[in-house]
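Incident review: delayed structure delivery

Summary: a single-chain prediction request sat in the queue longer than the usual turnaround. Root cause was a stuck worker, restarted by the on-call engineer. No data loss occurred. The affected request and its eventual output are reproduced below so the record is complete for anyone auditing the incident later.

Affected input:
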Amino acid sequence: MTRPASAILVAGLCVLTGCGGFVGQPDADVADTVTPAPVPTVPTDTPQPSSDGGIDADSVAADHWRALDGRSHTARTSVRWRYPNGSTYDDTTVHRVGPDRERFHAVADYGRPRGAINRTGHELWYDGERSFYRVDSRDAGPVFRQIETEVAIQYPGASLIRGLFARLRPVDVRQTALGSTVVTGPVSGVYGLQGLSQFRDERNVTMAAHITPDGYVGRIAIGFDAIVRDRPVEAQLTIAFTDVGSTRVTEPAWVENVSGQSGTSTPVVGRPLGT
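Output delivered after worker restart:
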């Protein structure tokens, strides 16, 4: 089940340049537009390969979050894998985050039902003070509750971005005419990274990433072969940070039905799904 590395990189670059969409995205409205926040004035240096063929992953991750600081944005993650019989699963998350991260809305769709009630997805709404959680299931329908404990945003974070770039070598760095940077190359593996522990024995792992002139990582596309539940799969991970400075974070209508339905545990949300 081998594929040429060049084919993966071409597919990744297609995603990066906008000629292909993410698979399995939820049908929720993306965002209303608002006046964009000013572009950060902190200059960022173009990442360059080191002597060992790698890249400074710590600097890439730090520049990413510095560029997003104080700016609303939408983070989309898709983990897709396909078995030899053609069965395909897509786990997706979409996070809409306010400029000060005081409000956020997470929507997740699962590639296959999970747990005793066959959960098919979840949502989390945080308004800066209260957290509301919704679980959709095949057997029990929607289940709502208010969460008493404070939650943290756990969407594709610095650890995942840093981990991916740290495993990327030998790296190829190309500057575009518009001032952005395209970084490509093979990755040593994805096991152990945030939300990707279901994959084993990864092979032919290739990555293409687009870093904007502002310094944040706009898109990442990774393709690889792996084993999931003792069966071979072809897998793809795609991450995008979009609508920077123009994402509107609005309370979902279902929150009105949740008041008083308390829970005691904080769900783990926002990770690239599949575990």
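Verification: The two ends are 23 Å apart (CA to CA).
Action items: add queue-age alerting; document worker restart procedure.
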